[in-house]
Amino acid sequence: MGNCLKRSTTDDISLLRGNDSVRESSSDQLSPPNYQEALPAQQAILPVYHPSPSVTRSVAQLTEEEQVKIAKRIGLIQHLPTGTYDGCKKTRECVICMGEFMVGDALRYLPCMHTYHMKCIDDWLMRSLTCPSCMEPVDAALLTSYETN
Amino acid sequence: MSEPQSALLLRKQLAELNKNPVEGFSAGLIDDNDIYRWEVLIIGPPDTLYEGGFFKCHLYFPKEYPLRPPKMKFVTEIWHPNIDKNGDVCISILHEPGDDKFGYEKASERWLPVHTVETILISVISMLADPNDESPANVDAAKEWRESYTEFKKKVARCVRKSQEEC
């Protein structure tokens, strides 16, 4: 795919050329920057990661080892079930943001059966793979649940 | 842009603590315009050496709260093994999980995003009653607490008296 960072300069030309680049220059290209091709000057808008909870690095500054660690973590998190709050569950509050669940909120369920807003818990899991309520390590619990199923 | 989630969460806690105060401390802001910097007055817990004292503390929250812990500092002079001589509180729940292999070493004792001003203060008050000898922040106080308790008691009593005068 095209590099959206160059978009502002190539836009007009690509439109003039017509055919193949039309989709590329559509407005949704404004969303996530292209990580691989981003220039150092663009670091301010790069996503940041936390190889460990107190370490904050932009994606361009990660070591190879940290990249692997974070990729594994993202993979694990994606294996955790998600759902939408339907208003009739036992849990009514997300203990991270102390906000009540509203019908339609995206939720994530941890193996220990604790439930949080997806946004709230994913931000935490990207720093530490433990359930904030019971401290159960999420990765170990996930592996166990695979073995028992 | 709307207010960050951390500010909303802290505002909610402040309102809740104003409405339903918790025994043992009172909480407010250092500056009404800055929700990230709190001033807390801890009442020396009964049946401890700190009984009768009024200890002013500051809590400094990062913008990433509750993903990252606040820092806590005693403004009132205090003599305690887990509070260093500058007043900085050294308590495991205010430390982030270490950079251990799996990211959850002793997770139960470390910072978790479910901690609030209330749970932090409860831990600190229990620390006043029951110092943790294993990780002293004030080595001299820890040594005294272990080896010359009478001297330790005297120093604490002096802080308690001083805190009453300042109040």
Automatic annotation (TrEMBL), chain A:
Report any one BP term from Gene Ontology. ubiquitin-dependent protein catabolic process
Superkingdom, taxonomy of origin: Eukaryota
What keywords would UniProt list here? Metal-binding, Zinc, Zinc-finger
Pinpoint the RING-type domain residues. Answer: 94-134
User: Which InterPro entries is this protein grouped with?
Assistant: RNF11_RING-H2 (IPR042981), UEC_component (IPR052804), Znf_RING (IPR001841), Znf_RING/FYVE/PHD (IPR013083)
PROSITE patterns per the UniProt record, alphabetical: ZF_RING_2
Return the protein name: RING-type domain-containing protein
TrEMBL record, chain B:
Its EC top class is transferase
Q: Where are the active-site residues found?
A: 90 (glycyl thioester intermediate)
Q: Which GO terms describe its molecular function?
A: ATP binding; ubiquitin conjugating enzyme activity
Residue limits of the UBC core domain? 5-165
Q: Name one GO biological process term.
A: protein modification by small protein conjugation
Q: Which UniProt keywords apply?
A: ATP-binding, Nucleotide-binding, Transferase, Ubl conjugation pathway
- Give the EC number(s) under which this enzyme is classified: 2.3.2.23
Please name the CDD domains in this protein's record.
UBCc_UBE2G1 (cd23795)
The cross-references to PANTHER family, in alphabetical order and at most eight, read:
UBIQUITIN-CONJUGATING ENZYME E2
Q: Which family does it belong to?
A: Belongs to the ubiquitin-conjugating enzyme family.
UniProt function note: Accepts ubiquitin from the E1 complex and catalyzes its covalent attachment to other proteins. In vitro catalyzes 'Lys-48'-, as well as 'Lys-63'-linked polyubiquitination. May be involved in degradation of muscle-specific proteins. Mediates polyubiquitination of CYP3A4.
Name of this protein = E2 ubiquitin-conjugating enzyme
